[in-house]
Amino acid sequence: MKRTSATIKALTLLLLVSFHSLSKAETIQIASGEYPPWTSQSLPGGGYINRLVSEAFKLHNIDVKFDYLPWKRALEATRIGNYHATSFWGESEERRQDFLHSQTIENIYFVFFYTKKRFNGPFKWQSLDELGRLKIGATRSYTYNDEFWRLYKQDRLRVSISNTDIDNLRKLISGTIDLFPISEFTGKYLLHRNFSPAEIESIGINTKALSEGKNYILFSKTQPDSQYYLNILNAGLEALRQEGKFRIFQEEMFK
After folding, report:
1. Which 3-state string (H, E, C) describes 53-107?
2. Topology of domain 109-212, per CATH?
3. pLDDT tens digit sequence for 91-116
4. pTM, 2 dp
5. CA–CA distance from 127 to each of 82, 124, 209, 239 (Å)?
6. Which residues are CB-neighbours of 97 under 8 A, at least 6 positions away?
7. For the segment 209-242, what is each residue's pLDDT rounded down to a tens digit?
8. What fold characterizes domain 2-107+213-252?
9. CB of 149 within 8 A of CB of 218?
10. Which of 21, 191, 210, 235 is 20 to 30 A from residue 176's alpha carbon, by CA?
């Protein structure tokens, strides 16, 4: 019943905006950044998230033009109205003031990848306080969660900061660090694309979440048609979700 209701809601939203979009071909401009496999101009469809966005709008005869910029510039350029929207962002009070938010496009969970040779059996943890004896990798400018950085500043976590996720995965495989928090999808994708089967086999994953973040497409409040495009995107995303496209598109990233 719940699934049927969601499908009816998605179809209703599509019908509500159909008269406008069927009358002409449209193009929406969206600012994005590089965060493979989620978003990247070098990946088919612009990465997993941007492919979802494109396909959602395509259901309503709207093309998407993505411009890939440094993340802060993408956000600011959208805020002042140079773009209709920006893909994709977590939630904050400040962003709620300046942007309309789509439905949640993806929940991203950060989990610990670990080097198997460091542990006797699967790595398990209950609290960050337990991990003070281990060497943990972190990627510069990532948030993770407040407790993680608080314990680091108190010298209760041994954290080695690198510039990229791939740098940290290399450190993990070499044994320079013991643990590395990363989203499971990102970690598996980067391992698949950059490392040998033997190297991948040396890495384990603990699926207990260090942090979880809801992510959205943000629409500029300075653009007069933002609510119109947001409604179309939400309807398209719901239709794709009901068709199982979210799972299919993720799986296709590994082909």
Report:
1. HHHHHHCCCEEEEEEECCHHHHHHHHHCCCCCEEEEEECCHHHHHHEEECCCCEE
2. D-Maltodextrin-Binding Protein; domain 2 (3.40.190)
3. 888 999 999 999 999 999 999 999 99
4. 0.83
5. 44, 10, 11, 39
6. none
7. 999 999 999 999 999 999 999 999 999 999 999 9
8. D-Maltodextrin-Binding Protein; domain 2 (3.40.190)
9. no
10. 210
